[in-house]
Design brief:
Distance between the termini: 161 Å
Largest sheet: 2 strands, antiparallel
Radius of gyration: 34 Å
Helix content: 55-70%
Number of helices: 10
Shape: globular
Strand order of the largest sheet: 1-2
Order of helices and strands: HEEHHHHHHHEEHH
C-alpha cells in the first residue's frame, strides 16, 4: 500500500507564487513566458523565412505590427468571451486592461495578429500565406512556452486525479488585496480541496510541441506552401485544444452544453481542413523570388546606380592618351662622285 507521503511525492508541485517584486517593480512569470515565446517565434520564423528565399529582417519588421495587434486581439477575445469577470456587480471594469494578470485568448491573438501581419506584408510586398507558413511552427512553440505562465499563475487546470502526474495546487494569500489571489503567495503549501488535479496546461504544452514537430516534418517532406503549413497548425492545434478544453474546470461560458472555446476549436478545425484542401490546388510552394518582395527591387536598383557611378569615376580617372609622335624620316645621304686624275 502506498503511503500518503509517497503519493504526494509522485505529484507535481505548484510554484508558491507567480509574481516577484524588484523594489516596487513586479516581475511576473506569466509576462516573462509570453515575451520568451515571442522571441522564439520571431527567431525561428526568421530562419525559416530566409531558408525559403525571403529577405533577412522581414519577420522582425512584421513582428513590429503583428505582436501589438496580437496582444490586443488576445485580450479582446478573453474579455468578450468572459465579460462577467469584469463587468458584473462587484467587479472592476478597469481590470479588463490588466493584461499582466493573465487572460489572453489565442484565437483573438491570431486573428488580430494576422491583421498586423497583413499590413506588414503589404508594405513589404510579400505574400501573407507564405509568411504564415514560415512562422507557424514558432507560433505554436510560443504557445507552449506561454502555458508555463499558467503553471506559475496556478490556473487552467482540470478536475481531481489520482494519476502520478497530478498537479498539487495550493491556497494563496494576499494580505494587501484578499480578492486578488493571483498575486498572492502559497504560505504553508495548504492544498486546495480538489488537489491534486489534471495539469491541463501541461497537456496542451506537450500537444503543442508534438504539433510543431508534425508540421515541420510535413513541410519538409511535402514542400507545403500557400498557407498550408499554417492551416495544418490550426487543424492540429484545435484537435488537442478541443478535448483538453473539456477537461478544464475553470469558469467559462457555455453554448449548447459546450464551452465557447470548444465550439471555436470545432469551427476553426473545419475551416483549416477546407483551406488546406483548396490551397493544395494552387500548385507547388511559392517561388523564392516572390518572397523577396520590394527589398529585391531595391537591391538591383542600388547596384545599377553603383555601377553607373563606377563607370563615371573610371571615365574621369583614365587620362587621355598622348598622341604618338611619328619618328622623323631620315634623309638619304647621296655620296658625291669621287674625282679621278686624267
Amino acid at each position: 500500500m502506498i503511503s500518503a507521503s509517497a503519493a504526494f511525492l509522485a505529484t507535481i508541485p505548484s510554484p508558491d507564487r507567480g509574481v516577484w517584486h524588484l523594489g516596487i517593480i513586479p516581475i511576473r512569470a506569466y509576462a516573462l513566458c509570453i515575451i520568451a515565446g515571442i522571441i522564439v517565434a520571431i527567431w525561428w520564423g526568421e530562419r525559416r523565412w530566409v531558408a525559403r528565399g525571403g529577405t533577412k529582417g522581414t519577420i522582425i519588421d512584421m513582428a513590429v505590427y503583428a505582436v501589438p495587434f496580437g496582444l490586443v486581439g488576445g485580450r479582446l477575445y478573453h474579455v468578450i468571451t468572459d465579460p462577467e469577470l469584469y463587468f458584473t456587480e462587484g467587479k472592476n471594469p478597469w481590470n479588463a486592461f490588466a493584461i499582466w494578470d493573465g487572460g489572453l485568448g489565442i484565437w483573438g491573438a491570431i486573428a488580430l495578429g494576422a491583421v498586423g501581419a497583413l499590413i506588414a506584408c503589404r508594405r513589404k510586398g510579400v505574400p501573407l500565406p507564405a509568411m504564415a507558413d514560415a512562422i507557424a511552427p514558432g507560433i505554436i512553440v510560443a504557445q507552449a512556452i506561454g502555458r508555463l505562465g499558467n503553471y506559475f499563475n496556478q490556473e487552467l487546470y482540470g478536475a481531481h486525479t489520482d494519476l502520478p502526474w497530478g498537479l498539487e495546487v495550493y491556497q494563496r494569500f494576499n494580505p494587501d488585496d484578499p480578492e486578488n489571489l493571483l498575486n498572492g503567495v502559497a504560505t504553508g503549501h495548504i492544498p486546495l480541496p480538489e488537489s491534486p488535479v489534471h495539469p491541463t496546461f501541461l497537456y496542451e504544452l506537450i500537444w503543442n510541441l508534438l504539433i510543431a514537430g508534425l508540421i515541420v516534418w510535413a513541410d519538409r517532406k511535402f514542400k507545403l506552401g500557400h498557407g498550408r503549413v499554417f492551416a495544418l497548425y490550426v487543424a492540429g492545434y484545435t484537435v488537442g485544444r478541443g478535448w483538453i478544453e473539456m477537461m478544464r474546470t475553470d469558469t467559462a461560458n457555455h453554448i449548447l452544453g459546450l464551452r465557447v472555446n470548444v465550439w471555436t476549436s470545432i469551427l476553426l478545425f473545419l475551416a483549416a481542413v477546407i483551406y488546406f484542401v483548396l490551397a493544395g490546388r494552387r500548385g507547388p510552394r511559392e517561388a523564392p523570388e516572390l518572397l523577396a518582395g520590394k527589398d529585391a527591387l531595391a537591391v538591383p536598383a542600388a547596384d545599377a546606380a553603383a555601377e553607373d557611378e563606377d563607370e563615371d569615376e573610371d571615365a574621369v580617372k583614365v587620362p587621355a592618351e598622348a598622341p604618338v609622335e611619328k619618328p622623323a624620316e631620315e634623309t638619304p645621304v647621296v655620296d658625291e662622285p669621287k674625282k679621278t686624275d686624267d
